[in-house]
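Progress note, project year one: complex with S-adenosylmethionine.
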Amino acid sequence: MIPRGPEVFLWIIGGSAGSFNPIRSFLHQMPYYREVAIILCLHRLRNPRVGMVEAIGALKGWEVSEPDDKTYIHGGHVYISPADYHLLVEATGYLSLSVEEPVHFSRPSIDVLLESVVRARWKKAAAALFSGANRDGAQGMYLMHQAGHFTAIQDPDDAEIRTMPEAALALFEPNVRFKAADFVKVCLQAITL
Amino acid sequence: MLTEFLPDISDAELEQFMQIMLTQHGYDFRGYAPASLKRRLGLVIKKYGFTSLIPLNQRLLTQPEYLRYFINEITVSTTELFRDPAAWVALRVQALPPFFALPEIRIWHVGASTGEEVISMAILLQEIGLYSRARIFATDIDDISIEKAKSAQYPARSRNLYKQNFQAVFPTSSFEKYAHEEGGHLVFDPSLLKNTRFLKHNIVTEAAFGEFEVILCRNLLIYFTPPLQDQVVTKLVDSLVPGGILMIGTKESLFWCSAAKRLIAVNDSERIYRKQK
Ligand SMILES: C[S@@+](CC[C@H](N)C(=O)[O-])C[C@H]1O[C@@H](n2cnc3c(N)ncnc32)[C@H](O)[C@@H]1O
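Model obtained:
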């Protein structure tokens, strides 16, 4: 049986400008874990020409989708926040969408997603923040850290745009500062803790 | 405290709050999905400098006139003209033609918010020559949004997006036929609302009224838990004539709704359904 709902380990990955390629190549190297769901919250064009699922391409084992509202979380999935909606995690194990106003000019917002994970008092979760040109994600990462979850922030020197990781690092020191090329190792480290 | 950024709200606090809203003020939020509701409540608490729901409850009891502002603040009213243009094209091309011959077409916008969706529908009907036969009801729980909807005026900064969406649905028609800018506002032709009645109505707690050829309920179900989605969609499908159309938001799903059995997809990816005859 594939783990579902609140039993699933959530690996939340946020990024903005300069994060898509490193995250895509990470996903293609990441071994399949049926206990884990990866949730991507990436800032993107409002009306993208190609869907994000297509842009990521087929992965080994992992199923990739842009979830509809109230999708029940399943392990072994990569969920991508749909364009122009916030994605939130419900304590009962569902993904909810919201059209609430953008946060840090962003919808989806990484802060909104991470805040929901903390409010849901999700048991097993970790979060990472990649390159980006704004401050979204900093508060959310800090909340995750305070809630006792594993956090990882891309080394600003390794990031294409350092603003986003730097904004988070100004608030707290995460478990790991990583280089994009090493992120698979970081990801596995959190899962097997 | 969750952090200095955001007040935490425990399940017990939320429970108590919902009980007070129900018994003292007649609003039933029990089936609302907690993630967004807690976030909105957290934002309101923070805005007023409170740290928990207790002073907020107090304020609602001692200053009842504040209730309408509060409802406006915790509901999410984001909307736009022709949101998801492809869905509106599908509505026009695939869903509406069977009604072209009817002497009257009744339409219900559930959760109409500030009215952009209502204006979109009015423009669409105007473009296909059906508007004079339409009878439109637009309802929402939030009377501040309803007041804005009645004015048919929006901030001028909405213009680019609204015009772009309009043009995506009607590439050869002119946006300026319907709206002009005046004193910092984008003002729509008031005749677009002449067949429309705006009503304060709670789809969760109040009965439906009448039968409709078309019901739009978009980006409202996302704020409900699956059981409440099921209950509300049943109410909506009951209010459709056989062959009537239900249109929901493009990321909403009928997966948890038993009434989906009574619907056939007109365009599944644009979330447009027809009630079986
Ligand atoms: C995000 S807006 C959707 C606006 C429009 N339908 C659209 O899709 O662009 C959601 C609206 O639903 C309203 N609403 C929330 N709960 C409601 C209820 N129980 N009954 C009626 N309307 C409700 C809110 O006040 C808000 O105006």
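Strands of chain B lie at 105-110, 134-140, 153-155, 179-182, 185-188, 196-200, 212-217, 240-248, 263-267, 272-275.
The two ends of chain B are 54 Å apart (CA to CA).
No further modelling is planned for this target in the current period.
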